[in-house]
Structure formats: C-alpha cells, structure tokens
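Exercise 7b. Backbone tokens:
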C-alpha cells in the first residue's frame, strides 16, 4: 500500500478554502472515479483501491491518499497531478 501526503499553505478565508477543496475534489472524483463527502472540515473520498481525506485547518490544506497495490504503481503521477491542482486552487483570486 502506498501513501501520498501533500500539504498546501494558503491565506484563503474558510469559505474560499472550502470552495478550493471542492474544486480539487471535483477534479479527482472525475479523473479517478472517487466518491467524495464532507465531514465537518474534512473531505473524505474513496473507491476500490483508493481512500483518503483533504483536511482544512486554518491556513493549510492537508491531503492524505492511500493507494492499494494496483493503484500504487501510479503513485508518483497521482501525487504530481493532485499537488499541482492544490497549488493552483489554494491561491487567492
């Protein structure tokens, strides 16, 4: 099992940070077929072979993704795509 951890600092308001997190969720749910749901300030997502969470905590967004055996082969590509998307959306407009 592979694990990906990405932390993105930001200066967004809580509402803006939640909207940015939702953009990340829409992107990964479309690309990887994930089901996403909010639990407070934590956005949880999962599908067979993938599970994780995006946690909003003040001025940072922390993403943790666990990949099963087969998805683990794509860990570096997934990490690069998700990190790039987080960098783009957690910048103030």
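Sequence design result:
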């Amino acid at each position: 099992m592979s694990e990906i951890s990405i932390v993105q600092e930001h200066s967004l308001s809580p509402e803006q940070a939640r909207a940015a997190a939702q953009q990340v969720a829409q992107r990964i749910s479309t690309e990887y077929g994930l089901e996403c749901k909010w639990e407070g300030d934590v956005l949880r997502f999962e599908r067979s072979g993938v599970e994780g969470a995006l946690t909003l905590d003040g001025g940072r967004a922390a993403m943790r993704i666990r990949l099963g055996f087969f998805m683990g082969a794509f860990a570096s590509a997934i990490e690069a795509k998700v990190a790039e998307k987080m960098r783009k959306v957690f910048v103030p407009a």
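Instructor comment: The chain has three helices and five strands. The chain has one domain: 2-90.
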